[in-house]
Design goal:
87 residues, alpha+beta, Alpha-Beta Plaits, 4 strands, 34% helix, 30% strand, globular
Amino acid sequence: MSQFMLSGQATTIRFAFTGIVEAALDRLPTARIISQNDKETIIEADVYGDGVIMWLLSQGSRAHLLSPPMMVEKIKKEIAKMTVFYQ
């Protein structure tokens, strides 16, 4: 499990990634490739807490969280708060 410096509940995340796959696999030690095509790689990983949200956001449009739904909503809220800075 990857802590991302925040403790919390163990969660399995799934995200679509268009960046360098090896970088994601290195950052998330429990990551495994679920599927891959010319456009994206679907990666699943076990993490603790919400710290992974910061890493996903740091990947910009290269990372799209697919599940769990509750964490997707947290990312949407964070992006909405960030948008205020760039209007």
